[in-house]
Predict the structure.
Amino acid sequence: MAFEGLSSRLQEITRKMRGKARITESDLKDMLREVKLALLEADVNYKIVKEFIATIRR
């Protein structure tokens, strides 16, 4: 069940971004925040989430 919730949240995030012609830095920041929250709500370890988000930001 946790994977279904995570999957639907991630799909919703990508659906929001798909409609944009350009993705601004602000959009990316908002998207990463939502991804971070979705992963944490799915009980992914905080250290793993932090590392994942840091890798994406590079």
Notes: The helical segments are 2-18, 25-41, 46-57. Residues 2-57 form a domain with the Four Helix Bundle (Hemerythrin (Met), subunit A) fold (CATH 1.20.120.140). The chain has one domain: 2-57.
